[in-house]
Structure formats: structure tokens, C-alpha cells
Amino acid sequence: MIRSAATAVIISSLILSAAGPALADEPATDTTPPVIVSTGLIGGQYIRPFHMIYPTGTDDVGVTGTQVFVNGKHAGAYGWVEGMGPAAQLSIGDVADGAEVEIGVRLRDTAYNWSEVLTTRVIVDRVIPTATISPADQHILVGRSLTFSASGVPADTASIVMYDRDDRELARATAAPWKLPLDTAQLPADFPSVRITITDRATNKTDYYKFFDIDTAGPEISINSPKAGIMGPGVWPVLGYAEDRAGVARAEWWVDGALRGRNLDQLSYDFGTRERTATVELRVWDTFGNLTVGRYPFKIDAQAPTAVSHSPATNTRVRGATLKATLRLADPSGIGTVMTDQGYGASATSPFTATFQLGQDGKQNLGWIVTDYWNNRRTIYQTVIVDNTGPSVAWLAPGNGALIRGSKISSSVRASDGAGVASATLSGAKADTTSPYASSITAGKDGKKTLTWTVRDKLGNAAVVRRTVIVDNTKASLKVTKAPKNKAKVTGTVKIAASASDKNGVVKVQLLVNGKVVATDAKAAYTFSVNTKKYGKTIKIQLRAYDKAGNVTTTSIRTWYRK
């Protein structure tokens, strides 16, 4: 039998401390123990095997600790919870379900003075409450609202509460019928879920989690007719389709504002013979009551297709023997057939593609024969300019047969083309894209060398031009055939004769006196006269020859002394 609650019992001896005589300046010792007011439990209360208690008491300084006893046995010492005061976690141990236990609590102050032990008899409840929650699925497809119900609820159940993921209470039931209504608009969109917690009189709890796929959208609907958006005169069928993960409940067909049928699969209606626009409306509901309304206007069509665009564009330059052209068409009833006027069929879908045979250079009309679903016919033309000729090229430098001296050969050309010049490439060099087109290549060994320019227009047509030049980096042969020797003494006018030769020809031979050119002879044999009186006592004589490529040859310097 449960004894009355909050009975104070002394179950431990006083804690004594030895102390010497107090000094005059020492503070007074705190010997006043706390007074415990409540264990935090109520007599006859049902508690869990692990149960948090919050005892209350008073002290002239302050309570700082708690000690707990179960059936007189020490069960641990605990402290203080900020904002709540003394606290202790009960651990009942192996006590059987339904058994009575005596819980003792005493409080301690900062001077380690202990209060008396206050006891309360309670009943242990080890049974976790369970129930059957309907709908039973953990993952639920739901509409805008849902009501959960619980069955098989234990008799000692105190409450069943539904929370969202942020622990906000959404619904509470404390008695049968155990119903929890839910408005799904209260749930976050990114992760809609709830926790349903069953709590018994001992605060034992069981959590049930439910996750939602919220469906607030109506069914996906579509229709099918002989041609989309087009209806011929008289009676024509319109087929309806609807799909919804919650299931389709019902459908209605409305035409021109009046209800014409309830069979989702097909509407048969006489649209008459008058050219007009008739609006067909399909209304479909799912099992959650979500509605989708589709409105579809239908027209009568009596015109052939029209061209929206074509490729290539009008007067575009093209090359080759054949051309793949494309055509985009518009027609309210859709395209029927597309052919070329050369008898070739086009691709089956837009943009329509067909291959045309091309003729000679110049303008050519490409003809398309097109029909719509009702066989309305039209021929559409597009004009192109056939261009299979490469650019016109003018050679600038060097000239044909030119003599080239040095390690590089520089060359340039000009070019023009109706389609525009894309590039000009000198064989052995990189392409140039800016007019006038110029490049350089390595000269290489002496001898003939062919320069080849390949010029391409923007269509890819190429023109090739060639020139032959002669690489000449070999100096002419130059020899003095008649003249006083080095260090000779001379007087009056002295004659000098020389011979010069080169495989590509000698341009001139020059006479240099004291480093300055004083005479030039452009014809063999090469002769010069030197009036020694004009050049002082010491005279330095040298000959210099130029070949046609510009190579320079010099003789060694001879020094003469005038008598």
C-alpha cells in the first residue's frame, strides 16, 4: 500500500566536522542545512525506469547538489540545472513493472550541509505505449488534408500529439476517438513530415513518423484530334487523356460554354460547317478533388502552307554539284507532303531538308512543292548563286624568274572573290588572312625555286598560282688581270684591267681609291685608269663587283707609292 507522499525520513547520520576555535577575523561558518520541500514526485505517481525529477527546497545560501535513494539505497548524486534548480535522473534498476518503490531525496548547500531525506512512494511503469496509426504507411501520398486515427490505444494513454519536423504541435487528442486532423499547408514544402507521439501516464513515449508526398496538382490531361487545333466541318472525334498518381475521379467536356459529355475517352460533336473558332474545354478531377481545366480552340483551315524561313538565304553563294537546302513551313493544320520540283522527297519533319542538283555558275531557283493535311498545294522558290570558281589572284612580288639573294624569299599577292577571300597560303608558310597577302619562306640552296600560292574563298573554292625564282647567294668571280703589284712605285696615269664572271651575270665592277668609288664599268672587259697625281703619295687600290642578284665581291687592297 502506498504511503502518503512527501514523508520526511532521516536515513543518514549527521555529517560532523571538527573545527578549532574561531579566529576573530574569520567569517562565520555556514552550519544551516537546506530544507527540502518536495521530491518533485507525487505519491502514487507512475514513473518510467529512467525518470527525471526536479526536487525543490530552500537554503540561506543556496542549494548546489542533490542525492537520490531508491528503497533506501544510495542511487547517485546530481547537481543543478540552469533555470530549473536541483535535478536528478532516476535509474530504477531491475524493479519489476507495477512495483512500488520509495524514492528518497536530500539537498546539499555550498558548505556541504545536507537536508533531511524526503521520500515519496511511486509505481514503476516499464510498458511502452503502442497503437495502430492509420493510414499505416510510413510514406503517404496525400492531398490538401488528412486525418490520422489511432486504434489499439492502451488504457493508460495520456495523449497522442502530432508535431511537424520543427516540433510545432499540429494536433492533440487526449481521449477516444483518437483523431488527428492535418492541413498539409502547415508543413514545410522541402521535407513534409510529422511525428505522432503516444505518451502514457508515466510519460513513457513512442514516436511514429510519417512522410508525405503532397499532391495539390490536378491530373495531367491532353486531347487528340485529327489535327491539333484544327477541325474539319461536321462531326469529328476529340479524344481525351488524363493521368494522376492519386487516380482520376471524373471528367466533363464543355464546348462553347455548354456541357456536351462526361466520357473522358471521347467527345463526338458536330462542329458545323461555318468557319469559326470553337473552344473545347476538358475538366478532370482526381480523387483528392484537385481539378485541371484544359481549353483548346479549333479552327477551319483552307490555305496552303507558307514559308517561314529557308536555308540557304536568298542569293546565298553555294558550291558543289549538289546542295542540301532546308525549309521551315507554317500551316494551322500541319504539313502534308514536301517535294522538290526536281522530283526528290524531303525529310519527314521540320525543318524540311532536300538535296538539289546544281547547274553552272550563276543564279538558280530551287523549287519546293508543299501541301498541308487537307492537300492545299503551293510551290515555294528560293534563289541561290552557284559559285564553283576560286578567287581571282594578282601576283605582286617577286616577278617570274627574279633573282633572290638572302636566306628568305618574301612574296605577296592580291585576291578578290564574290564570296570573299578566306585565306592565302604560300607553300611552306602559314596562311595570311589580310590583303595584300604576304609571306616568307626559307630560300634554300642556289637554283630555281617554285613559289606556290593557294588562295581560298569563303566557300572553300581554291585558286593556285605559281612563279619560279632563282636563288643566288653565290658571289661573282673577280680577278685583276693587269695592274701594278702591291707596294709598287707608280707615276703618271696607271692602267688597271680586270675580269669578272657569274652564272647569272655581272652588273658592274667598281674601282675604289683610298676607300672611295672613283669609277664604274658595266661592260667586260673591265678597265680603269688612275691618275696618280690626284691621290697623294700613298694610294690604296681595290676592285668591287656586283652580280645581278646583288651579291658583292671585292679584291684585296693593293698599296702603291707615288714617285
Please specify the SSE layout and strand pairing.
Layout: E1 7-9, E2 35-38, E3 46-47, E4 50-53, E5 56-58, E6 63-70, E7 73-78, E8 80-81, E9 85-86, E10 88-91, E11 100-109, E12 117-124, E13 132-134, E14 139-142, E15 145-151, E16 157-164, E17 169-173, E18 179-183, E19 193-200, E20 205-214, E21 220-224, E22 235-243, E23 248-255, E24 258-261, E25 266-270, E26 278-286, E27 291-298, E28 306-311, E29 316-318, E30 322-330, E31 335-340, E32 352-357, E33 362-372, E34 377-386, E35 392-397, E36 403-404, E37 408-416, E38 421-426, E39 431-432, E40 437-442, E41 447-457, E42 462-471, E43 477-482, E44 489-490, E45 493-501, E46 506-513, E47 516-521, E48 526-531, E49 538-547, E50 552-554, E51 558-562
How is this structure best described in words?
- The protein folds into six domains: 7-18 and 28-124, Immunoglobulin-like, CATH 2.60.40; 132-214, Immunoglobulins (Immunoglobulin-like, Sandwich); 220-298, Immunoglobulin-like (Sandwich); 306-386, Immunoglobulin-like (Sandwich); 392-471, Sandwich (Immunoglobulin-like); 477-562, Sandwich (Immunoglobulin-like).
- The chain contains no helices and 51 strands.
- Strands 1, 3, 6, 7, 11 and 12 form a six-stranded mixed beta sheet that branches.
- Strand 16 (157-164) and strand 17 form a beta hairpin.
- It is elongated and about 155 Å long.
- The chain starts with 6 loop residues before the first strand and ends with a strand.
- The model is unreliable at 1-24 (pLDDT under 50).
